[in-house]
Amino acid sequence: MGVISGPLEFKYQQEKIIIPSERSVWQGTRNRFGFGRYEPDTPWKKEAKPIGFGKLELLNWDEQVKSTKDYSLQWALLFGTDQVQEYLRIDPALLMTISLKKLIQEKEKWTFFRRHPNPSYADALELLGVEVPFDFKLARDRQPSRQLSLFKELYAASMQPSVDAEKLRVQLQYAVQAGIPEMKENFSPKKGLVVYVGEFTRGLCQEYGVPITQNGKSSG
Description:
By secondary structure, the protein is of the alpha+beta class. The chain has helices at 55-59, 63-67, 71-76, 82-87, 92-95, 100-105, 119-128, 134-141, 144-158, 165-177, 197-207, and strands spanning 2-4, 9-11, 16-19, 21-30, 36-38, 44-47, 51-53, 186-190, 193-196.
């Protein structure tokens, strides 16, 4: 995935398509010949080089997709336009059972499936220096490891000698949306001190007037 910096280059003799990109990211592994394998559970890596597709990769595309005139949507599924975001808001389990052809044919129905923003897309966009849509950022920050990091930032801000109440209130509102008040974990900022994450966050919310509704969202 990358930020396109120029028109596509078609290298017919080499049977390649090159997408000029000064900034791109890759999720997976590459062998010593440069051939890659997509691995969705690996961290994104930043690359400063064009993105290329060879003959074998192009042959694996869905035949129906290659024959359609909607080429802009094909490329959009690879590069960060609104269509990519819609695609990455679909439940990954559903993507395993529905073809790219069907998604393109029924793209007007995508909004029905916009309930599962892919958390890793936020990491990819940050590496590319692109603004991260709120729902992707929140999906990532609701993961346990990110929740703890957010709490540590919140805790540090609340312990400052001079607290910026308005800034802390904004942090708390986001912490509520990220599910931190429901956390059962504890955190030890220094030896001999144990802070219970959820309990501490709920106490801060009460102190700074940030409501917590039953579904875990701030109404403030």
